[in-house]
Predict the 3D structure of the following.
Amino acid sequence: MLTEQDLPWLAEPLATWRDGQRGHALILHGGMGSGLFELSLRLAQAWLCEQPPGPCDHCPSCHLAQAHTHPDLKVVLPEAWAQKLQWGGEDGDGEVADSEGKSKKKASRDIRVEAVRQAIDWAHSSSGRGRGKVLVFFPADAMNTVSANALLKTLEEPGQGMRIILAVEDPEHLLPTLRSRCQRLRLVPPSAPQALDWLERQGVKDGAALLQAAGGEPLAAQELAQEGVTGAQWASLPQQLLQADARWLSTWPVPRALRALQQLCHDLMASATGATPRYFPADSLPPVTDWRALADWSRELARVQRHADHPWQGPLLIEALLTQGRLAIHPPAGRRGYT
Ligand SMILES: [Zn+2]
């Protein structure tokens, strides 16, 4: 598990929140690619540490937390995230492969209702090691309405010494009834120089371009590099849109390719309204000639995104989306200039 030694920008919020929180229910929000999960776990470990101020990483409690076997720490996450984060336990039984390696079951991106009910039962049982208990939901917006409602009473009347962390990118994705019962703390991503310095020490090439592609989140930039994306490839994406050339993009998993198209659409809109693009170099973006087509494209991308776990025909889908996006910057004859 990554710690604040690995991700130095987590040290300050960890120390502040460890000592300063009197509330028992917290919403931690910020970028997954800035270490939201890691910070949630370190905060939980710090509260349970037997040699405060923790986490000391040496006491029996810290060892149990690091081995994912602490009786007073429960982490509830969807199967898909459990796999990605290599988090074991009863909720991490996601995709099952048979002896030939074929996938039988797609890992769920939702937190199961049963998992939430089990967590609530656990929350109201007694503490094992006497330093209280911590329950973490990640990402908390993976709970459906039924699950979120089941949790309300526990948030209002937690057991003795109980703390609950709802970790989420955007708190607005949570039910208002959950939000109103929690104190909010925001994880601020590291400054660009700090993030670039960190990426360089991880051996990531094209750090600046990939950091921009990742919206300033260093772990996400590192992941792009590990997937083989280069700065030059990223910067060429607007050109690929102009030519509706899906060869490179269609080699990506569909959700990743969709996200890239949404980022490109976002930046085309920003640039068309005179705002600063967030993910692409400003000079790489072609002018928008058909604003309405761009808005249609944005809606279509959002619609497809909601169903991104469907077994789409990946390359065909991406090609169709590229062709639609191209219309906004390169409309057919007769529609040019139409707004
Ligand atoms: Zn400790």
